[in-house]
Amino acid sequence: MAAKAHGSTMAGFVVFAGTMLMVIALINIFEGLLAIFSDEELVLTRNNLIVVDVTGWGWTLVISGLILFAVGAGLLLMQTWARIVGIVVVGLHLVSQIAWLGAYPVWSLLMIALDVAVLFALTVKWSDVRGRIGGDRGTTADRERARVAAAEQRMPPLV
Question: 49 in helix, strand or coil?
């Protein structure tokens, strides 16, 4: 009974990870489009007023958002490639948040905690989660063997 509860909890974590990646992707795409269409920003320093072009940053956000959205959708479909890419992307995001600790400490700590939760979901008991959600359907031969084995168990004994 405890194993079933643990499997459903892990399946919930993976659904959470996929959903969070898709939400973050949509936010990145929105911010990237804003940066592309409003590509000149003013930066006020002590002695100067500087105009900065943020088009490159906007395209970076849009492309990373599209990748994150694909990974999130792949996770919801229980694709192994999405798990591997998700681990890499979330790991890189975690390391980048460490670099932002000095500028945005509370936000960075929250993002690091979220990244750790997502990494946990992507690295623990993947095969159990795939079976629980239904991503591990097996081949046709595997399904046929399982059906025959189930039928043999239902047969009455021969006397």
Answer: strand
